[in-house]
What we know:
Layout (H helix, E strand, L loop, with lengths): L11 E4 L6 E6 L7 H14 L9 E5 L4 H6 L21 H14 L3 E8 L6 E3 L5 H8 L5 E4 L1 H6 L11 H7 L3 E9 L4 H16 L17 E10 L4 E3 L7 E3 L4 E5 L4 E3 L4 E4 L10 E8 L2
Parallel strand pairs: 2-3, 2-4, 4-7, 5-6, 6-8
Antiparallel strand pairs: 1-3, 5-7, 8-14, 9-11, 10-13, 11-12, 13-14
Helix pairs in contact: 1-7
Zinc ion binds next to loops.
Amino acid sequence: MKPSFYHMHEVHTFSSLKNGPNLLVFSAIHGNEICGPAAIQKIIFRLKKGLIPLDKGSVTFVPICNPLAYKKGKRYIEKNLNRVIAQQPIPKLYEEKLASHLIPWIDTCDYLLDIHSYEAEGPAFVFQDTVDKKTKAFAQCLGSHTIVTGWLEMYTAPNAAVINEGDTVSYAHSQGKTGVVIECGQHNDPNAILIAEKAILSAMSFLGLTAPIKKKTKMTSTPLTVKGYKVFSKHQKGRFVKKWKHLDPIKKGEVIAIYHDGTQETADHDAFIMLPNSKVSLGEEWFYLGKRTS
Ligand SMILES: [Zn+2]
């Protein structure tokens, strides 16, 4: 692939004269996830206009982390960018080159907010990978009513069907940073833009970069916490038995999906189905099961 417009990142930094935390905001790590870039554009406009004064610290936005995939409306071009965020001795694939350009931004931040959306219909939620107090507080400040935990443990379990590594937040944690992913709902849900915008504004306020947010927009209840415990990869042709939504409750023994050869995937416990994706390729994550922990 020849170097082109798609071999650069648009980056915006707003920096206060007063020292403080550096918040990094990524979006469109997956090119078909459009809510983050739209929300960031609105916030940049307001920052430029002085409508959201920055009291201290800095905020850096990389609104389109995968520019070519974004242009094509695809999840990725050569490889899932959220599986290659790691130091690559010689980056070869397009997404590996993007990753080596994104990593220095993570290295210099204090907090990372990575904005995504997903394929199925369903509510917004925050991924909280680690249970340390700092990450928990950051995850809870974003205004989402659901927090999903257990993701890393699920992937490192001995029977895990697929390996999850090279994602933005794992890399951030490996460098001593605090980071979370917010999934703002279905890819094309217009409400996802508002959720992304609220999450960024809440993060800036939580870190003291901007003034406290007025009470009426603050979350009033403790979020629902669901812990993922099993990942299912699609190992042969098959289909879901119905159009599942993210966080649909499911009964023990209920059939979730049927393979071409007639074998079935069923729930081993009363649980929630998570991130069902009817469009995955063979070998990729198809859906997950999780249990409520609070
Ligand atoms: Zn994504």
